[in-house]
Amino acid sequence: MSEQGERSREHPLIRLPIVGSPIGQGSRGVCCPMCSVLPGSGEKAFEGPEQLMVGSGEFQFINCTASCMDPKRLVLETALNKTLLESQTQWKLFKVYNISKDEELLCSSTCGGKQETKVFHITVFYPPKQVLLTLSPTTVAVGTLFTIECRVPAVAPLECLNVTLLRGTEILCNQTFVGTTLSPQDAVVTHNTTAHREDGLYNFSCEAQMDMRSCGGGLVHRVSDPQRLEVKEPVPNNQTGIIITIVVVPLLFLVTSVLLYRYWWRPRHN
Predict the structure, then answer these.
(1) How far apart are CA 195 and CA 231, in angstroms?
(2) Local confidence band at 254 (pLDDT 50, 70, 90 cut-offs)
(3) What is the membrane topology listed in the Swiss-Prot or TrEMBL record (predicted)?
(4) Which residues, 6 or more positions from 205, have their beta carbon under 8 angstroms from its beta carbon?
(5) Given this model, what pLDDT does residue 268 score?
(6) Which residues are bridge partners to 98 per DSSP?
(7) Cβ–Cβ under 8 Å, residues 184 and 92
(8) Is 84 exposed, middle or buried (0-12, 13-18, 19+ CB in 10 A)?
(9) Cis link prior to 17 (omega < 30° from 0)?
(10) 3-state SS string over the chain?
């Protein structure tokens, strides 16, 4: 068997994603295929991503690899809960749980009396978990204004969030955000529009998408529950009718009085 084949057999986990973090059902986790290197490649120990993005409360895989074949010590140093999933003489694969704030994880080993270390900087982000849509009012007359509000609670970073308001499949509003803080905050999008008869035939919805792929993370997508708008025909304005009555009735009375005077009362007195 070739030297390359021997190396692959010694390291069965090198084809697995080395780091990963599921971000809710149906979403993709953070994944990096090159967090460690094969022995004898000439690279230093613990080659891999130094910056990792993890959804709040999620987990992360960390692969610690030594540069020598038989390290005296190979550990992952962290105060977080961790589980050793698999190991060989040169590497260990850990799963770190419940990451709720920014952390530093340290892989360390001792080879030939020399200590080697690799620091992984974990940054926590807050993906959208709820998307709340409100129509106000829920019953409107044709031609009147109503408001569509979409609220995405406790998300960060905002600059990676995109919120879209939809009527059926038609995009009514597409909103991005500006902000650099990593602390979670509510994202709110408000759209005022005029009611049309056909609006009552469609579902209104809101989609929130957080794209962390440029930062080493995944793509998180959430959709609100659909909402229906009740659209009614405009009701005649009663106040207008009252004004017309007040003006027209006295005018008709006056005109009738003049005609009666001219054709009935005056001839009798001439």
Answers:
(1) 7
(2) confident
(3) Single-pass type I membrane protein
(4) 133, 165, 166, 223, 224, 225, 226, 227
(5) 56
(6) none
(7) no
(8) exposed
(9) no
(10) CCHHHHHHHHCHHHHCCCECCCCCCCCCCCCECCCCCCCCCCCCCCCCCCEEEEECCEEEEEEEECCCCCCCEEEEECCCCEEEEEECCCEEEEEEEEECCCEEEEEEEEECCEEEEEEEEEEEEECCCCCEEEEECCEEECCCEEEEEEEEEEEECHHHEEEEEEECCEEEEEEECCCCCCCCEEEEEEEEEECCHHHHHCEEEEEEEEECHHHCCCEEEEECCCEECEEECCCCCHHHHHHHHHHHHHHHHHHHHHHHHHHHHHHHCC
Q: Write down the residue that tokens 């080697």 correspond to.
A: 116
Report pTM: 0.61
CB 90 within 8 A of CB 39: yes
Give which of 24, 8, 5, 27 is closest to 16, Cα–Cα: 8
Q: For 40-93, what is each residue's pLDDT tens digit?
A: 333 344 444 577 888 888 888 888 888 888 888 899 999 899 999 998 888 999
pLDDT at 203 over 90: yes
Rg (CA), the chain: 35
| Calpha distance 231→139 (Å, rounded) | 6
Question: Which residues are paired to 194 by β-bridges?
Answer: 145
Q: How many CB atoms lie within 10 A of CB 251?
A: 10
- Listed residue (220, 60, 80) closest to 155, CA to CA: 220
Task: Give φ, ψ of 82 to 5 degrees.
Answer: -145, 155
Please list, in sequence order, all residues whose beta carbon lies within 8 angstroms of the beta carbon of residue 4, skipping any fewer than 6 positions away: none
pLDDT-based confidence at 239, cuts 50/70/90?
A: low
pLDDT digits over 135-158, tens only? Answer: 999 999 999 999 999 999 999 989
> Both tokens of residue 194?
């005029």
